[in-house]
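Exercise 7. Given the components listed, write out the predicted structure of the assembled complex. Treat all entries as one system.
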Amino acid sequence: MQVLSSTEAGVGDEVQRLRAELIEERVASVRALARATRLSQLITALGQVVDLTEVFDRAVCEVTELFGADIAVLFTPTADGFRPAASWGLGTALSGDLPLLDCTRRPTRESPVVAGPVADFDVPEWLRAYGPVHITWGLFSVRDEPPGYLVLVRRADTPFENADVHELAAVASRIALAVDNGRLYRRTQEQLQRSRQLHEVTADLARSVDVGAAAQRLAEALVEHVPVASAGVHLGGGVAGSAGEAGGDELTLSLGGDGSSIGTVVVTGAPAQGSLAHDFLEHVAEVGGLALERAQLFEHIRRQAETDALTGLPNRALFMGRLAAAMERCRAEESDLAVLFMDLDGFKAVNDTHGHEAGDLLLIEVARRLTGAVGEAGTCARLGGDEFVVLLERGDAVAVADGIRRVMDEPFVVGGLRLRAGGSVGIGTAATSGYDAEALLRDADTAMYAAKQARRQEV
Amino acid sequence: MGERDVLGHGSSRNDDAYAAAEECVRQAFGGREPTADDLVLVFPTIHYDPHLFFAAAQRAAGNAQVVGCTAYRSFTSDANLVRGAVALYVPAADLRFGVAIRDGIHRDVFGAAKDATSAARERAGGDAGHSVLMVISDGFAGDQRAVVRGCYTVTGATVPMIGGAAAEDISMIATYQYANGQVTTNGMIAVWINSPRPLGIGVAHGWHPIGSPMIVTRAEKNVIHELDGRPAVEAYFAQRGTDLPSRVRDGLWEEPFARAALGHPLGLADTVGRFDGRHILDRTPDGALVMFGHVSEHSVVQVMAGNHQDLLEASRRSGADAAGQLDGPPRGAIVFSCAGRAGPLGKEIEAEAVSVGEGMGGAPIGGFFTYGEFARVTGSTGFHNATVVTLAL
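Answer.
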């Protein structure tokens, strides 16, 4: 019985030992598995964010949790020190340059992580306040830039193991990659934002058909969107548009992209060469040049459409437009206006005797004398052939008509010829025509014929 | 520390909200007159109208600051209630409390936790000596890890955190929280405690893993979609194996899934081979498991099981660890125990409070069964399930 119970005891111990071994093995396999997946967890977490600030914030938080640490601080280099770009476990955010810790064996690009008890490190005062017990210090480098550092702190007496150190090296390079991606993302976002702005500015400028307004909008867009301190748009020597308060260096850019510059834009406080903002400035100047060219072309075409090509006076279309607008005003104000209708008495004879060229030269001279006689009092226009009209919104119509007749009766010298033309002038008024532009023109025409008949009879 | 400063506790089984609140708070005072600096904690079960109950508790507590939440079960050193309410009276003595509450935290759990913690610290007059943050959150807040992270940005590594998630009777409908005169159902309470001497914190669970470890192959916040590449619910059931006959399994769909999963949480493995419990809140029609807290993709989990001996040993350890960190004899302890422990504890559930009390050397205790515990002393992870968390004062 004695032997048997001793055997039983032996078997019991063996079962206990095997059970303990089994549990230990299970724990070991779970540990191995948890370790093996730790890096993937971090990569997944970092993969969920792209903004650089979020990458830093997420990295310190996840690394602290995954490595059973209490504190993580990520330092990025500044001009003369290091700045905590993100921290976890410090409670209050530390800002500005902070002294890094030091030790005899600093992390290098070749051996990027060092770990050890706090005694191995020269710990700065701000970190000592948190009671660090074990520290790892990892280096991460983005391309050829000065390196940044990741500092992990455990406040419990649980040393960082070799496996931790190896994985932290992978973590550091992963953070560097995320930082690189984050910067790329930030730059892409900025470019996207710039191209959206450029689109808006282009669309805005393209709407301007008035050169002055387009020049002003271009100056304002440069100050608002680039931004520059001040902008002045110079076309043909004069300032066509300006915005902002001058400040900083002056920079002159040509308006128009293909060498056919239509002017310049002078800015102060331009962003640095090579920056996205500077590229944007050049794009806007180029687009602005095109928009201004377009506005100038539009003005030219409009002028052509409204002007009599031979004499440079407004043509029938423009005259009728102005007359209609003036009639509206008169009707509203219950005032009156007059239209003077003038026809040359001897134009057909000039054409028949001396040819069309002489006739054209005569018409140009007639237009010059007509505008001279009317002056600022009214708007002169050529309806066609030798028919001219004058819109008089104020002044004595009869006196103006007399003045016109007088200058027309004077002999003309054109192409070496001395010619007499003479002009008959008829007057119509808005009130008697019932504020109808067509009726008014007809009335003036009729009056002109009556005047012509009267002049013939006088002769 | 005099008699006046000992933690007081009271309980009531009265069905009337007003009478229950009045009775448990009065018992907790034990004839002492509360001051505005004192703290009263109340943990009613879900059976009362929360607005009536908390208002009555506040009236009964006079000037003292009242903080509380609904519970799965509540307990004190000498009461254990499936239906009823308990009150704990924490005389301020050398402690200073700052209380803050935030509502509607689902919009930004992290931000609300950070904000409430900052406000509570300010009300306590900033950090002083040995600070501890006590947190009570809505059990259905979703990502309880975000609560911890939000708090941690304010506390930092030097201020420990404890607390529990408000619970109910596993109907999985709503929990309630109360502080500063406000009742919330999706709220978060921060109580910043400043103490001139160290306070003690104990955390233990006593569960063990069963089956094989699995890798979370697809997850989003607190939803695990796949385990080992299979739909999570399917993989979970496979690991539970023979303890779940098909008849029972079919029946599970008829009741809140959390109830069926309560006895077998998932254990989240860390790199030193320990498991941190993660209870299952629900499952989705496409076979995903909804957890009480965040579970990261690629983390390692294993189904957990427990027996009452191991769990009670952990309860005793939680109490003893907490008491062991104090300079002198404990005034008492506030205990947060997981509702998920009810399964393996079975009939022994009332022994949980007794074991914590034994670990505390017989000091008065009180607390409630939660939908998740907060405990962070070292390391920055601090949300747990399936544990007993003890704050020794």
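Discussion: The radius of gyration of chain B is 20 Å. The mean pLDDT of chain B is 91.
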